[in-house]
Amino acid sequence: MSLVNSSAGGVLEPILERYSRNPRHLMQILRETQERLDFIPQWAVDYLAEALALARTQVQAVIDFYAFFYGSSRGKYRILFSDNVTDRMQGNTALLARMLSKFGLAQGQVSGDGLVSIDTTSCTGMCDQGPALLVNNYPVTRLSSQRIDQICELVKSQTPLVEWPSEFFRVEDDIRLKDVLLSTEMAKGQALRRAIELGRQGMLTEMKVSNFRGRGGAGFTTGVKWEACSNAPGETRYVICNADEGEPGTFKDRVLLDSFSERVFEGMTIAGYVIGASKGLVYLRAEYRYMLEKLQATLEARRKANLLGKDILGQKDFDFDIEIHMGAGAYVCGEETALIESLEGKPGRPRIRPPFPVTHGYLGKPTVVNNVETLAKATLIAQNGGAWYRGLGTKLSTGTKLLSISGDCDRPGIYEYPFGVRISKILEDCGARNAMAVQVGGAAGTCLAQHEFGRKIAFEDVATSGALMVFGNNRDMFEVARNFMHFFKHESCGFCTPCRVGTTLMCNILDKIANGKGTAYEMNELTRLHQLLRTASHCGLGQTAGRPVYDTLQKFRPSYDRRLNQKDFEPAFDLDAALAPAREITERDDVDAHLGTHL
Questions:
Q1: Of 65, 92, 109, which residue sits at a domain end?
Q2: N or C, where is the chain less crowded by C-beta within 10 Å?
Q3: Alpha-carbon gap, residue 149 to 103, rounded angstroms
């Protein structure tokens, strides 16, 4: 009997119909299936494969690729502790151990009654108010021993999340310093009306005059990108908002989406107007699932105000609407081509470039992919003009930059500065009195030592996607680098051998050094592997994965050296110790039963 006609249809058919049975929506169909069933059972995989005319292996490959899709039950309460380095600095390790002890569970284990599982995940975008965790995809911030005990009691009593104390789920913006973006009041539709007054070419000219560079990290000139997409052959074009803010230490996009979403959506609409697109797609990271309904309500209000949909603001040739697509836990999807693959319902593996998305992007059509901050700031250029914006910042880095500041400082949060601000000024403003190091740009960014605090945030000096983590003089930079490398190992998509194997080898070496078995040989290997990753990896994730180790080796070498063994080389694997169970079984413990130097 056909699976499509089975009783399973009562659960899955409404989801399939909502997405028009379109396989490119596989990610969203799987997400809603899991939200309905708590996990994705094999019968659902079979059903969806037939209903969407996909091979079963295609559906399973998507489930297996993303960390937040589950093929078996993870319990009624799925608790994931954020394990970013800043969460560790704030004490998450002890809090995790406390909760595991209270339930008598090992990390990753599901309780025997199917009530709860407790594990870790990568950065949840709550670095300014950690330690944090996710419970059934909803963030709980500012964890303490008392709050952990309260959560345990709520779980044991099977209290629904809607009845938990509301303060558990309070996520604050923590805006500490405002400049032109965060301080400017703008009525809904104001910037869009101005863009329409300028006309498509006029608005594009203002973008190019501004010399505005994208705020996602790469810094490509936005006006040039929009122009290239506009001039690409074909009638169908797309605008994508990259809201997959997965870089450890970054949370500025969370604040923009939560409190400035009108500006983000208006920027997308302006981009759509300029390039002639009729569809916009927001790729929202899984850790921000709690925002989804609020963002959808904002979109609906904009449709009612004729700021989305058909004939926007009375323009007969201007149709544009926006959909929100959720990710499912994959750092690599922050890379624009991996994100596009994910939007098309596939595992998020980066594409080979060229061709670039501006000519061959989503569904093979010309596509502009911009960061959340980039799109929000496009409204400022529409409203005030390119020359005005070019007057801010530096000659090569115009405008302002939002920084997500966390770590050893009194005032973590969001700061907006004109480009050209010095690291020392930022540290002074956030209350970082004893900073030893600053990691700029997240795990894949640049580690700066004290003698470099006079450098500037700018594309021509220290470029950044927006993260700035402060480490005080009591921190161990070896452990910081080790945490980052384990993050990269976990997040490698596995597509290319240099990244897949190289990140694993670097993690193994760092673990060996941590266990007291490192030598000068391992130090040389770390440098060699970094160079291999940098030159041979397929995408930016692999190319920058070794940077935290390389930077800390150059600038904080004593944190490595004090762990080193004096031997030229010592194997990490103790074969004699591994044979201990065999000696116990055979009841032998004589000299000949051991591996000695005489062998």
A1: 65
A2: N
A3: 11
Cis amide prior to 354 (ω within 30 degrees): yes
Q: Is residue 581 part of a domain?
A: no
- On whether both 306 and 284 belong to a single domain, the answer is yes
275 with 365, same domain? yes
How far CA 70 is from CA of 9, 25, 75, 329, in Å, comes to 20, 18, 11, 11
Task: Tell me the CB-side half-sphere exposure of residue 594, using CA atoms within 13 A.
Answer: 7
Q: Where are the alpha helices (DSSP H) in 280-408?
A: 292-304, 336-343, 372-384, 386-390
d(CA 261, CA 242): 13
3-state DSSP assignment of residue 44: helix
Give the CATH number of the domain where residue 486 resides: 1.20.1440.230
For residue 568, being part of any structural domain is answered with no
Residues 255 and 347 placed together within one structural domain of the fold: yes
- How many residues belong to the chain? 599
Q: Which two tokens stand for residue 385?
A: 């003009």
The two tokens of residue 112 are 């025997």
Phi, psi (rounded to 5 degrees) for 371: -70, 160
Separation between Cα atoms, residue 430 and residue 408, nearest integer Å = 9
Q: Is the pLDDT of residue 423 over 50?
A: yes
Query: Which single residue is written with the structure tokens 């452990």?
Result: 479
Buried b (16+ CB within 10 A) or exposed e, 505-521: bbbebbebbeeebbbee
| Distance (Å, whole) CA 352 – CA 130 | 37
- Banded pLDDT at 2 (limits 50, 70, 90): very low
- CATH no. for residue 337? 3.40.50.11540
pLDDT digits (tens, 9 = 90+) for 373-416: 999 999 999 999 999 999 999 999 999 999 999 999 999 999 99
In whole angstroms, give the CA distance from residue 79 to residue 168: 14
Give dist(CA 168, CA 224) in Å, integer: 44
* DSSP code for 107: T
Residue type, 498: P
Domains of the chain: total: 5
pLDDT per residue over 527-583, tens digit each?
Answer: 999 999 999 999 988 999 999 999 999 999 999 999 998 767 777 777 778 888 888
Task: Please check whether residues 81 and 29 belong to one and the same domain.
Answer: no
In degrees and rounded to multiples of 5, residue 469 shows phi and psi of -105, 130
User: In CATH, what number is assigned to the domain containing residue 126?
Assistant: 3.40.30.10
CA trace torsion 446, 450, 452, 456 (10° rounding)? 80
Helix, strand, coil share of the chain (percent; to 5):
50, 15, 35
* Phi, psi angle pair for 175, to nearest 5°: -80, 115
Torsion sign over Cα 71, 75, 76, 78:
negative
User: How far is the CA of 300 from the CAs of 122, 141, 262, 294, 308, in angstroms?
Assistant: 32, 29, 11, 10, 8
Helix (H, G, I), strand (E, B) or coil at 477: helix
Domain range for 504:
482-561
